[in-house]
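G., before I forget:
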Amino acid sequence: MAIAKVNGVEVEFEPGMTVLQVAELAGEEIPRFCYHERLSIAGNCRMCLVEVKPGPPKPQASCALPAAEGQEIFTKTPMVKKAREGVMEFLLINHPLDCPICDQGGECDLQDQAVGYGRDDSRYDENKRAVEEKAMGPLIKTVMTRCIQCTRCVRFITEVAGSPEIGLISRGEDVEITTYLGAAVTSELSANVIDLCPVGALTSKPYAFEARPWELKKTESIDVMDALGSSIRVDGRANAVLRVLPRINEEVNEEWISDKTRYAVDGLQRQRLDRPYVRVDGKLKPATWAEAFAAVSAKIKATAPERIGVIAGDLQDAESLKATKDLFTALGVKNLDARQDGAALGQGPRESWLFNSTIAGIEDADVVLFVGSNPRLEAPVLNARFRKQWLAGKTRFGVIGEQVDLTFGYDYLGAGAKTLSGLAKAKNDFVAAFEAAERPAIIIGQGALARADGAAVLKAAAGLAKTFNVVREGWNGWNVLHTAAARVAGLDLGFVPAEGGLSTGDMLKPGALDVLFLLGADECESAASDAFKIYLGTHGDAGAHKADVILPGAAYTEKNGLYVNTEGRVQMGKRAVFPKGEAKEDWSILRALSETLGHKLPYDSLDQLRAKLFADHPTFGQIDFAPGSVPTVFDLAAVGGEGEATDAPFESPVKAFHLTNPIARASVTMAECAANVSAASKIAAE
Amino acid sequence: MSVRRLAKEQPASFAFSAESQAKADWWKAKYPAARKQSAVIPMLWLAQKQEGWVQEPAIQEIARQLEMPVIRVLEVATFYVMFQLAPVGKTAFVQLCGTTPCQLRGALDLRSVLEKKIGPAHSVSADGKFSWEEVECLGACCNAPMAAINDYYYEDLTPESLAQILDDFAAGKAPQPGSYEGRKSSEPKDKIQTLTDPKLYDGSAAKKIKIPNLPEKPKKTKAEPAA
């Protein structure tokens, strides 16, 4: 550890840190615009000027200057103050005074730092330059006159998102941030540039002129759009969610979120089920809760338990899954399934369906093999980590499945199960590297598991993991990448068919059941079933269309709930707004229904329900703990099932990234993005 | 300098001619395979040589050949003012120096000649043969005023000589580049009074000098075997 002095106070620092970082260690705030912890250093805004000794007798850009042993850093001298005022004055030469109509107002770095470090007025009274607006697609609104050319957006989209579509053209005072000839940005992480932009040049298009930050009620919650469970902040006003922003969580999403996480929320206002419905004479008619419950309980009471089935959806919280399971188990129902896609998981040890290396820990892997997964579409934020590792040259990747642009380089090994089972004997460069790896990892996606031969594929993958010793002392490289936020909770709860019970696929066969209870299940072909269908959910989507009774539930922003992400981390989502209309929180609907069915659930509040959940399934009590952070060895031989794997190529279940769940499908913004992507891929195909 | 944009009207396609492609390949081969993007400036230059200006499809083609994002090529093309982003005169493209030394020596008069004979700056004449623009210092201040026409410098210009040069171009001739005052390169304009001593040029005035801080010459030892 080296020692430097910041304003006369000695600070220890790691060699290689910059002067700016050392000053921050000492608790000094250094104003900055272009510098960002997770991006490369540009050094072009000059706001972070400090004085250093020994050094030239002029201010130094602290973000780009390596700190040295014995260096004296000054952040409060007259020279620094004058330098900051000068830089701020320069930055404001061409920056318009349109704060009152700027969406960044109130959360603008330039505004804050101008107050903190600028002069009270400007000495420049020349005309300001004006820059044409740029088209950047349906998410990013541009007011380029406000741009201060920090190039954070260029660096983010190039380095982190890995789709270099934004650039800085021209030079000198004419430079402009733009995409190539106004093309829309196609990256799944594109909207993060809005957060990165320190001024109001790139702002949120769907949120334009909606609200000021101080009007919003901010709720820290968890995202359900993919299985990562990114940390988010839900900003709401009155009873509407206006926007979603990322929270910093080094363990999961660093500080990024995908465009779907951020912008699907306008779907929470559309297509909503805000009152119960009962189908009368083939038509859904609005009903009261009592009528709906009466219709449900009459039907369920008249049906034998083995003719009743329950399918749980992908966005459900653990509490509603628990209540559903408790209720229907009490009724004697064995046909329960939380796996709408029919993924062959849920048997064997818990580790077999978790992302055991943990999301942060996968960065330690030196060779990673993807099996039937397209992480770019299934978990874009996780994909950014892979890209980060690849850019640093620390990790080598291999893919069995679809050959697509993952934003990082990989060895393409093959398309299907044949490659998987033959890999142990294959002689190629990647296999040699995989064998020699100290921390090899296999990431198996739902594309390989959610198929008829999923169990056999799982067994083959487990066999491969065993051959290559992927699970070893101190390292667990067996990873399942889920696509559904509710899936791991469902598997942890044992929300799978009991002995002799039917799985999703069998339940949906015509004639298999008389009553089908859909707990927010919209991704399965429930229309195929001819059973009496009860849908508890939020949106008028696939599940509700053919339902006979609709019970309106709460979306993820409207209830307190626990979610378990793909690594088995239990996280707590918070209610930001109230459910729509007459809708209720899912667990309380089930509790009320249980009473009419004569099998009253033994809890009267969410706390009691959680207490029961923690007692029955202790893993749920470990909030914010990723089980893989303490590597455990488990028996891979118990993973997977019998059967012959066909050689059909693995295909990711996520075809249209922006349309994977009922909330996103109801979102206008997501529809625009999806249209954009399909148009772009059409052009690319030509 | 003004905001640089690609021209509105662009050709549908662009392809390097066999000759320019051979040159482009030479440039690409010059850099390590992983750094072949380094050839972006020479390749933009080749595209401009071939077509007279940098066309949008050429930017796409260069990005494709160098396997780099097309926005990166656009950044380079818009950064350097030597890349013409709109069509220029086919016979003569005049870049008139308008920086102080040339201006003091009469560049403004040359400008009015150009305006009269070709038209406003940055616009191609009706026959497509001529266009002109004012540029910053081209580094030939000793021969001010001057203009670069196509690939050559035409120096010590007067309104008359510039008009004559343009007429020659129009007539299909290739006017002689260099000084139009009869000077040899940039030697003094009038009677040469300094540096006249012939000894200066035969090497006899040279003295042996010792350059300070030279690294010590390694003593001659047996040559080491190549590693």
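Chain A touches chain B at residues 158, 164-172, 174, 176, 178-181 (CB under 8 Å). The radius of gyration of chain A is 27 Å.

More on Monday.
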